[in-house]
Amino acid sequence: MKKGLVLLMAMISALSCENQVGEVQVDKKAGEWVSSGTKFLMGSDEQVETVRSLISNYAAMDAEAVFANTRDSLRFFPFNSEEPVMMTSDDVKEIFSQYDSIISEPIYFLPYELDGVRSVVEVGSNETKYKKDGTVEEDFFLEKFIFGEDGKIHTLRQWRAAW
């Protein structure tokens, strides 16, 4: 009986010493949007998946699928223009008609929010486009996919970068 009691006490003691660490998500604000003082928060993985799908559909040259998670028209700021262009599925189909194939290789996805004001997924990617005339376009882009309150992408800002 003594051995049983000692064994039971030893097991209770050992079990109570186990670290029971649970994952806790903390909404830590950091950084600053200087003009307003707004702080940044980490964004959602769901929005990363939305952008990942859009990029995959873009590389597959499927214009309809590109617009699956956007508004009917997308405000696009291309790297080589100071003014935005309103893009529709038909506009993207016309652009795709110039190419045989597109390879888009994302390097990172960074989702963040501006203190509840705006949700953004920033993506750095290498892109290679093979035109039907035989030329090849290679770029590294920094792009920001901006979501609206409806949960859809409404704006895409693009910068060309060099490593």
Order of neighbouring strands in the sheet with most strands: 1-2-5-6-7-8-3-4
Q: What is the number of strand segments? A: 8
Helix content range of the residues, please?
25-40%
Give the uncertain stretches in residue-range form.
none
Order of helices and strands: HEEHHEEHEEEE
Global Rg: 24 Å
Most strands sheet = 8 strands, mixed
Return the domain count: 1
- Specify the CATH class: Alpha Beta
- What is the residue-mean pLDDT, rounded to a whole number? 87
Number of helices: 4
Measure the end-to-end span.
73 Å
CATH fold category name: Nuclear Transport Factor 2, Chain: A
Shape: globular
What structural category characterises the helix and strand content? alpha+beta
Strand content: 35-45%
Examine the secondary-structure arrangement and name the CATH architecture: Roll
General description of the model:
This protein has 163 residues and is an alpha+beta fold. The chain has one domain: Nuclear Transport Factor 2, Chain: A, CATH 3.10.450. The chain contains four helices and eight strands; from the N terminus they run H-E-E-H-H-E-E-H-E-E-E-E. Strands 1-2-5-6-7-8-3-4 form an eight-stranded mixed sheet. The longest helix is centred in the first third of the chain and has 16 residues. The N and C termini lie far apart (73 Å).
Keywords:
single chain, alpha+beta, Nuclear Transport Factor 2, Chain: A, eight-stranded mixed beta sheet, 4 helices, 43% strand, globular
